[in-house]
Amino acid sequence: MEPVTHDDLLDTLVAQLETLTSICGLLSSRNTGDPKRIEEHFHSLLQDKIRLHISVNGQQLEAERAEAKFKCALADVFFNTGQLDVSTYELEFAKAYENFINIKFDPQALCDKADAEVAFISSLQRSSTQMDVDTAKMNVICWKRLTEALDCLGTAASLPDVKNLPRIYLRRGDCELLRRRLGVAPWSYELAAKSEATLTKNAEIYYRRAMRLAKAESIEDEAEATVKRTIAASLSGHLDNLQSEGASERCKIDEIMEDMIEEGLLIQGDIGKLGLERKHMSA
User: Fold this and answer.
1) To the nearest 5 percent, what fractions of the chain are helix, strand and coil?
2) HSE-CB for 178 with a 13 A CA cutoff
3) Taking the C-alpha atoms of 122, 125, 128 and 133 in order, what is their torsion angle to the nearest 10 degrees?
4) Neighbouring C-alpha atoms within 13 Å toward the C-beta of 87
């Protein structure tokens, strides 16, 4: 039997931390549970051990990624269970990556942070239906976070060791549509409304780039990027491509369109603008 190394122990600790992150995500989606127990478990059983094994073998990148993701997820579940106000939530979220010194050279960490930014605004917007939130302040925060997500993804895409570029460009397009979404009710953010044409065009450009990159890597990503590019172009008024698709293509468009509505990339009003009917889901 081979001896257990510090690498093995660190991998086990990181896996436990990733499990806690997954539990946080589950609790956030249900707005239930006690995140304090998760926080106590991290501080009492994992944090010091992770620091110890990092100091011995010097391999800290994977652990830093996992810890930052966990802290974002933990802040999210505290907020979604009503135990943090908006200001404290934003502060805790910002602290999650403040010690990640080399993040600008780590494409995976940059993508993780971008995903966390999007999750942050999703929770913030969802909470607005349940608590008294200053819409003007919330819009500024959401715009800032989405812009930060785009910056992270842009930096990640420029790094030489980046992987899965099609997904990164798909996420960049998604972030532009999320910024566009801030310009319509109930948010009605003036900056987003004035920038709608630019944001939609940016999304189309990113989706087109993802489509081209995916040709050699992923049929699934290529299909998603193709449909999203077509939808973004149609939002800019180029409806012929969308309305001329055949039955099989329309089925794929309907499927992805429903996902886009679910993720907040489109609203019901967009469906009418696109000249389509929403057949399978209620508004």
Assistant:
1) 75, 0, 25
2) 28
3) 110
4) 1
Q: Who's near 8: CB < 8 A, 6+ residues apart? A: none
219 token code pair: 């049929």
Sign of CA dihedral 20, 26, 28, 33: negative
What sections of 96-164 are H helices per DSSP? 107-127, 135-158
- What phi, psi does 162 have (nearest 5°)? -70, 145
| AA identity, residue 59 | Q
Contact of 20 with 34, CB cutoff 8 Å? no
**Rounded to the nearest 10 degrees, how much is the dihedral formed by the CA atoms of 176, 258, 227, 178?**
0
**Entry pTM:** 0.91
Q: Which residue has the tokens 């997500």?
A: 149
**Six token digits for residue 38:** 């998760």
Q: pLDDT tens, position by position, for the chain (283 residues)?
A: 677 777 888 889 999 999 999 999 999 888 777 899 999 999 998 988 888 777 655 567 888 899 999 999 999 999 999 899 999 999 999 999 998 888 999 999 999 999 999 999 999 998 887 777 788 999 999 999 999 999 999 999 999 999 999 999 999 999 999 999 999 988 999 999 999 999 999 999 999 999 999 998 899 999 999 999 989 998 988 765 665 555 567 777 888 999 999 999 998 888 877 766 655 444 3
Our separate counts of H helices and E strands in the chain read: 14, 0
CA separation for the pair 149, 117 (Å, rounded):
6
Q: Is the peptide bond before 186 cis (omega within 30 degrees of 0)?
A: yes
First-to-last alpha carbon distance for the chain, in angstroms, is 59
